[in-house]
Design a protein that fits this description.
The chain is built from 14 helices and 13 strands. It is an alpha/beta fold. Strands 1, 2, 3, 4, 6, 7, 8, 9, 12 and 13 form a ten-stranded mixed beta sheet that branches. Helix 2 links the parallel strand 1 and strand 2. It starts with a helix and ends in a 7-residue tail after the last helix.
Length: 333
C-alpha cells in the first residue's frame, strides 16, 4: 500500500511538473499561425506550454544569439558558416509562399497580373499609378483606376521581407543594386507595418495599396491576391501545389541553407520559402531544448493536417527523418 502511494505521488509530481513547463521561442511571423495551432494542441495533450512570440525573423535571430529563448525562428536561413560561428543548428519546419496583395476597388482576387520586374519598379518608386501603361499592358481586360499606388512593406526585421527582396533582387538588377535583399533594407517608398499581421491590416485599410504577406494571412482573412509570372513564363497563382513545385529542387541532404525563390519549373510559385528553427548546439538548459525538440517531433508526426488547413506545405517524410537524425548532433538523446 505504501509503495502504491509513493508511485501515485511520483506520477502526480511528474504530471504537475509537466503542466508547469513553459518553453520560450520567438521570431518569424510567417509560421506564427501554424505554431500557435500546434502549440495549442500540444498543450491540451501534454500540459506543456510553448510560448511563441511572433516578433519577426530579425528579432528571432537576435534572441537566438542572445540566448534569451530556447529556440528562435527565421524565414531567412543562416549560412552554414554563420551557424558554425554562432554555435547553432537550424532546421526547416514547413514551406509556404509570400504573396503580393492589393486593395483595388472592382478588381477581383487573382484577376490582376504583375511580373517581378513591375513589382520591383513599384517598390523602387518608378511606377506610381495603377493605370501605368506597363501594368495595363499586362492586364488588357481590366479597367484599372487612375489611382496612386500606396506601397506597404514591413517596418520590422522580417524573413518575409528577406524572401520578398531576395526574389525582387533576382529579377531586377536595379532593385538589387539600389535596395538589395535582407530582413531589413533601406526602402525608397512605402509605409511600414509590423509583422505579417500589420502589413495585412494596412493593405485592407488603405485603398490603392500593394503589400506582401505570407499565404496563410491571405487565405485566413480573404485578401485580394495577385497572379505572378514565374521564370518559365507561366502565370501562376499561390497554391499548395505551386509551393511544392518550387520546393521540388531543394537538396536538403546537402544543407538546410535552401532559398526557394525564382525556382525553375512551369508550375513553381516564384516567391516561395521555407521557415526555420534555430537552436544552440550547446544550450544553457539542455532539458528545455529537449522539450522543444520533443514538441517539434510531435508536430512533425501529428501536425501535417493542421499545416494543410492553414495552407502551409508540410515537409516530405524523408526530410523529417533526416532532421530527427541530425538532432542527435545536439547530444540530447
Amino acid at each position: 500500500m505504501f509503495k502504491h502511494l509513493l508511485t501515485l505521488l511520483a506520477a502526480f509530481t511528474l504530471v504537475t511538473a509537466q503542466a508547469q513547463t513553459t518553453i520560450n521561442g520567438g521570431g518569424a511571423t510567417f509560421p506564427a499561425p501554424l505554431y500557435s495551432k500546434w502549440a495549442e494542441a500540444y498543450h491540451k495533450l501534454t500540459g506543456i506550454r510553448i510560448n511563441y512570440q511572433s516578433v519577426g525573423s530579425g528579432a528571432g535571430i537576435r534572441m537566438t544569439e542572445a540566448r534569451t529563448v530556447t529556440f528562435g525562428a527565421s524565414d531567412m536561413p543562416l549560412t552554414d558558416e554563420r551557424l558554425t560561428a554562432l554555435g547553432a543548428f537550424q532546421f526547416p519546419t514547413v514551406i509556404g509562399g509570400v504573396v503580393p496583395v492589393i486593395n483595388i476597388k472592382g478588381v477581383e482576387p487573382g484577376s490582376l497580373r504583375l511580373t517581378g520586374t513591375v513589382m520591383a519598379d513599384i517598390y523602387l518608386g518608378k511606377i506610381k499609378k495603377w493605370n501605368d501603361p506597363v501594368i495595363t499592358a499586362l492586364n488588357p481586360a481590366l479597367k484599372l483606376p487612375d489611382q496612386e499606388i500606396t506601397v506597404v512593406r514591413r517596418a520590422d526585421g522580417s524573413g518575409t521581407t528577406f524572401i520578398w527582396t531576395n526574389y525582387l533582387s533576382k529579377v531586377s538588377p536595379e532593385f538589387k543594386s539600389t535596395i538589395g535583399e535582407g530582413t531589413a533594407v533601406n526602402w525608397k517608398v512605402g509605409a511600414g507595418g509590423k509583422g505579417n499581421e500589420g502589413v495585412a491590416a494596412m493593405v485592407r485599410q488603405l485603398p490603392g495599396s500593394l503589400g506582401y504577406v505570407e499565404y496563410a494571412y491571405v487565405t485566413q482573412t480573404k485578401m485580394n491576391w495577385v497572379n505572378v509570372q514565374n521564370s518559365a513564363g507561366t502565370w501562376v497563382a499561390p497554391t499548395e501545389d505551386s509551393f511544392k513545385a518550387a520546393a521540388a529542387n531543394a537538396d536538403w541532404n546537402r544543407t538546410y541553407f535552401q532559398i526557394l525563390t525564382d525556382q525553375k519549373g512551369r508550375d513553381a510559385w516564384p516567391i516561395t520559402g521555407a521557415t526555420f528553427i534555430l537552436v544552440h548546439i550547446k544550450p544553457e538548459k539542455p532539458e528545455d531544448l529537449k522539450a522543444a525538440l520533443t514538441f517539434f517531433d510531435w508536430s512533425f508526426a501529428n501536425g501535417d493536417k493542421m499545416a494543410d488547413e492553414l495552407d502551409y506545405v508540410a515537409l516530405p517524410a524523408a526530410v523529417k527523418t533526416k532532421i530527427r537524425s541530425d538532432w542527435k548532433r545536439l547530444g540530447l538523446n
